[in-house]
Every structure is written in C-alpha cells, then in structure tokens.
C-alpha cells in the first residue's frame, strides 16, 4: 500500500527539484567562496564587455568632436582617464555582484537545508517500511 | 462585493485546475500583443508583418519560457530597425546588450516586467507597472521597469523621427548614429518619467510594508498621487504642454487597475484584525494578524428524479426526502 506521508514528502522534493532546485544547485555544489568567486569571474567578463560597448558607443557619439580636435588631443591623458573609468566601473559592478551573490548563497543554503530535512524524512520512512 | 469574491474564488479554482492550459494561453496572448504592438508602431520590415508570421512567433513563445519571448521581441525590434537604418539598429543592439549584461544577468526573472512596461506605456497605463512592482515584487525590480521605459521611449522617438532616419534622410552614417543615441541621452521627458517611476515604486513598496490598516490601498493612492505630482511638476518645469489630460486619465486608469490588482492578490478583512501580545525569555511579541477574506463556494445540491427507475422506488425516495426537509 502507498505510504501517504512518504508520497507527500517525495512530492515536496520533486517540486523543489523542478522549480528552485536548478537555481539552488550551486549552493549544494560549491563553498561560499568558490560560488562568489565564480560569479565575480562571470561579472568581470560581462562588465568588461559592457564597458567596452559603452565606450565604443560614446566614442562614436563624440566622433565629430574628436575628429575636429584630433591633433590637439592628449592621448596619454585620455588613456589614463579611460583606464580609471574602467577600474571604477568594474569595482562598483563587482561590489554589487559580491553583495548580491553573497545574499543569494545565504538564502539558497537555507532552502537547501529545508530540502535535506524532507530528504531525511523520506529516508526515515523508507527505513520504517523496511522494518515492517 | 460577495459576488465579486465568489467570482474571484471561481477564477482561482478554475485557474488552479487548468493552469497547464491557461499558462501557454496567457503567454500566447501576451506575445501576440507584444508583436502586434511592435509591428504596428515600428513595422519597417514587411516580411515580419503578415499575420501567419505573427501567430507562429506567438505560438513559439507560448510553449517556451518567458525569456524566449524577451529574446524574440528584441530580435524583431532589431530587424525592423535594421530595415529603417543600420545605425538605429546598432544603437538598439548596444542598448539591449547593456541591459542584458548589466541587469538581466542578476535578475533574469524580471524580464517579464521589461516586456510588460512598454505595453502598459502604449496603453497609457504606465504607472501600473511601478505600482505593481512595489506591491507584488521586490524594490530592486524597479530597474527592469526602468529598462522597459527606456526601450519604449527610444522606440517612440525613432518612430517620431523615422523620416530623418530613413533613406530619404540627408544625415550621414555618423550623424544618424549620433541622432539615434540622442533619442536616449537627450530625452528629458524620459528622464522625468524614470525619476517618477522610481519614486512611485519606492513610495508604494515602503507604504505597503507598513503595519497599518489598509496599507495596500494607501500605497496605491499615494503612488498614483506621487506619479501625478512629479510628472505634472516636471512637465511644467520642462515646458512640455498638452499632456495634462493624458496624465490625469492615465493616473486614474492606473489607480483603477492597481485597485483591481489589490483585490486579486491582497484581500484582507481589517475589521477582524487580531492583536495579541506575549513574551518569551528574549522578546516581547506584538502580533497583528489580519484574516484573509475567504468565501466558501456555495454547494449546489441537485436532486435527481430518475424517471427510468422504478416508479415506486422513486416515489419512496421523494417521500423520504420530503420527510428530511
């Protein structure tokens, strides 16, 4: 006969697997440091791409002005300012990433703990059924 | 009110029972509206305009996740803008890439707000979205509302200046690119609306979280007022005229839609509020519990008089029932 309690617990596990499971999988696989580092690396790539797209768009936007002042431009100063802007942009972006994914890891671990509680219950029920 | 509550319960039950069919249907309708709106306003590529193409795209969106709808709408917009001018399509691509890389990497689920926002702005109920996000979502989701607003204003400006961007336009490649970027960077009305929407979301979010009676209703009314006052003052300062009637109507419409949202998602009975106080070793607890309005569906009893059954037995059943009454 079907054990109603076990079916309920297993349904909860299946719902978690299907919905939040995928999102919280990294919280099971990685330590906090590794998880945040992985996301920081991703953010470094996307942030760099975003910065260069933005910079290219701005250069095109001011192209006519740049062409007019091409001979008087201080390239060295402009490069230093560009690098500084990149550093500041990336620092802010990475800081936001760090804060967001740290919070996500904390809340994700909480959800995963709930998942383990249901898993333990299913295990216990299986043991009890075996003993019968 | 009771009738409305009964209808709401019925709707909830029906949706719960047939959600497997309703969800694709809703997605199909939303996708159809989005593509219809895009084609109707910036439909520069004729190949994308026939109804079968529209239906096919909506059908694809109905069975796939919502992110596919966002991606496909982006592609359709880019193709239409490409048919108008390559430079405009390039600016739109830059805009979409920036939105994707900087914001949707963190909150991919918020994409739905970005799709709904231009739709609401087009229907003159723009403030509904910041209010809905303040009521139902998290405060940071306002960024996705802002992304949708930027996209809508950009597309509207492109539509208004299509003659300048098109083949007949005299501007060179660089000028067209600058002109397209100007639609975003120098659009003061857009900046005003963005500021108003941020303020509306923040106001609604904080007020609805207050522990006061009728917090949601107060949040909606104050949100609508904030929207009206900020936009009205802004239009006066910027010297934009002819918007007052539209602003009043859109504020009233948004207020009505938000109140409907409140009825659907947050319906509590403040007259039966329970306030309890207790303590443990570490804390005093002041608990306020507000019951939800719940209406049990009336069970209709249908008595069957089975004509096929033995007449005597049926009569006996009837007499028993009459005795019970």
Describe this structure in words.
Chain A is mainly α. Helices cover 89% and strands 0% of the residues of chain A. Chain A has helices at residues 4-18, 21-29, 32-61, 63-68, 75-131. In chain A, helix 1 (4-18) packs antiparallel against helix 5 (75-131). The two termini of chain A are 12 Å apart. Chain B is mainly α. Chain B has two domains: 85-266, no CATH class; 274-324, no CATH class. In chain B, 71% of the residues lie in helices and 4% in strands. Chain B has a two-stranded antiparallel ribbon with strand order 1-2. In chain B, a hairpin with a 4-residue loop joins strand 1 (274-279) and strand 2 (284-289). The radius of gyration of chain B is 26 Å and the shape is globular. Chain A binds chain B through residues 42-43, 46-47, 49-50, 53-54, 56-57, 60-61, 63-64, 93, 96-97, 100, and chain B through 91, 94, 97-98, 101-102, 105-106, 174-175, 177-178, 181, 185.
Q: Note the main sheet of chain B.
A: 2 strands, antiparallel
Gross geometry of chain A: rod-shaped
- Count the DSSP helices of chain A: 5
Mean pLDDT of chain B: 84
Percent helix of chain A, as a range, is: over 70%
What's the alpha carbon Rg of chain B, rounded to whole Å?
26 Å
Please list the strands of the largest sheet of chain B in the order they lie side by side: 1-2
Mean pLDDT of chain A: 86
Low-confidence stretches of chain B: none
Reading the helices and strands of chain B in chain order gives HHHHHHHHHHHHEEH
Estimate what percentage of residues of chain A fall within beta strands: under 5%
Tell me the structural class of chain B.
mainly alpha
Q: How many domains of chain A, as an integer?
A: 1
Biggest chain pair interface: A-B, 18 and 14 residues
Q: Tell me, what's the shape of chain B?
A: globular
